[in-house]
Every structure is written in structure tokens, then in C-alpha cells.
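Fig. S4 source data, part A: sequence.
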Amino acid sequence: QVQLVESGGGLVQAGDSLRLSCAASGRSFSSHAMGWFRQAPGKEREFVAAISWSGGRTSYADSVKGRFTISRDNAKNTVYLQMNSLKPEDTAVYYCAAVLSYIDYVPSSLKNYDYWGQGTQVTVSS
């Protein structure tokens, strides 16, 4: 089992930055690929970014490419999502997710992840 707790959300203005954190506990964090997803009101949960167990491979949704950066610190059991140049359409609840993987795997589908956090709200005003 892996327990995930997100933090760092809040209310910001368009153009601002935020850094989300996801702290993991339980089974070996460094053996898990990690992902960030988001869900806006009335919409389905969508992929934002993923990072392999080693941090050597990353993947991004086209809508955030060039603005968001995913990273991880295996010594701290934490994955981060640095969000720059935020837009009102980035408003959503952001979730982190984990899946056990020993290869450089960066899944973008919800169904590929086994563990989920409770989410943190990000609101971007125009």
C-alpha cells in the first residue's frame, strides 16, 4: 500500500505560479512511477504529467507542456508539480497517483495507476 497526500494548492491570479507536493508513505516510493491528474467541475479527470521511478523520463499533457514541470525527490518520498504561467482553465482539483514500476514507465491513463491521493484545489482567477 502507498498513501499519498497532496498539498500546495490555493487561489492565485492568472500568470502566477504554484508548486504542488505529494508526500508518499508506505511501500517503497522509489519503485513507483508517479503521475499528476486534475479534475475540473463537470469534467472528467485528466492527465497532467508523469515521471518514471528514476526521474529519468517524464511526460506531459499538451495543455501544460512548457508551463508545468514534474519532479521527484526519492530521498524525501515526494513528487512535485511546478506550475508556471497559470491560466483560469488550469482551475481544478489536482490529484497525485502512483503505480509500482521497475522500468522507465510514464503512464498517462487513469486506469494504469493503483494509488491516489485525496486532491488539492487549485483556483486561478482571471
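Fig. S4 source data, part B ends here. The mean pLDDT is 96.
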